[in-house]
């Protein structure tokens, strides 16, 4: 088996050290570059003789986010495959990363052995997802259920205002309530719909799930 060249973009020092120690002991994988940011990685690859075939990429980084960095990385390394390795497991992050060009998505709960396995699978042309991530992707293809019955009439009003692009202050003024009340309603809406962001809420509305 030929050696797989690996690049890592991760700003957590403990995670860096753990990955570095592990991959230094793997004869089949050569970590040619480790950086704390996408910007530093893009600068450093210019001086490399051997370029990474696979990149392990975090999302929450110094400087630009990993998701924003994916197109830039693929522009410089068009033959590289990107594996997300992150604590973010929300639908929005998964969707954006895969749409941007990542081929695999791993939770940071993934063992080092499984991360190595993912790298080997991707190097052979496959894709690899943590089980919890894979389930979310599968669920995204399931028939959409209308979830409007999970919301109160007031919460539906707030959803409509958010979809119209109104700020919390504008919503509060329209509904004659305080901004804190609006925030509480939105928190309860997210909980009821099992989502984590305004983008997911708007997507559900556009997909006629509300």
Description:
- Helix content is 50%, strand content 13%.
- By secondary structure, it is α/β, with parallel strands linked by helices.
- It has two domains: 4-140, Response regulator (Rossmann fold, 3-Layer(aba) Sandwich); 148-206, Winged helix-like DNA-binding domain superfamily/Winged helix DNA-binding domain (Arc Repressor Mutant, subunit A, Orthogonal Bundle), CATH 1.10.10.
- Strands 2-1-3-4-5 form a five-stranded parallel beta sheet, sandwiched between helices.
- α3 links the parallel β3 and β4.
- α3 (66-76) runs parallel beside α4 and α8 crosses α9.
- It starts with a strand and ends with a helix.
- The mean pLDDT is 93.
- Keywords: DNA-binding, Phosphoprotein.
- Pfam families: GerE, Response_reg.
- Residues 5-123 form the Response regulatory domain.
- The modification 4-aspartylphosphate is found at residue 58.
- This is DNA-binding response regulator, NarL/FixJ family, contains REC and HTH domains.
Taking all residues together, what is the mean pLDDT? 93
- As a whole number of angstroms, the C-alpha radius of gyration is 21 Å
Kindly, what is the distance between the CA atoms of the first and last residues, rounded to a whole number of angstroms?
A: 51 Å
The CATH topology name of the largest domain reads: Rossmann fold
In the sheet with the most strands, the strands line up as 2-1-3-4-5
Number of separate strands: 5
Q: How large a portion of the residues is in β-strands, by DSSP E?
A: 5-15%
Number of helices: 10
Helicity range of the residues?
A: 40-55%
Give the H and E element order.
EHEHEHEHEHHHHHH
Give the CATH class of the largest domain. Alpha Beta
CATH architectural grouping of the largest domain: 3-Layer(aba) Sandwich
| Envelope shape | elongated
Overall structural class, as computed from helix and strand content, comes to alpha/beta
Looking at CATH, the homologous superfamily of the largest domain is: Response regulator
GO molecular function: DNA binding
Protein name: DNA-binding response regulator, NarL/FixJ family, contains REC and HTH domains
Pfam families: GerE, Response_reg
Keywords: DNA-binding, Phosphoprotein
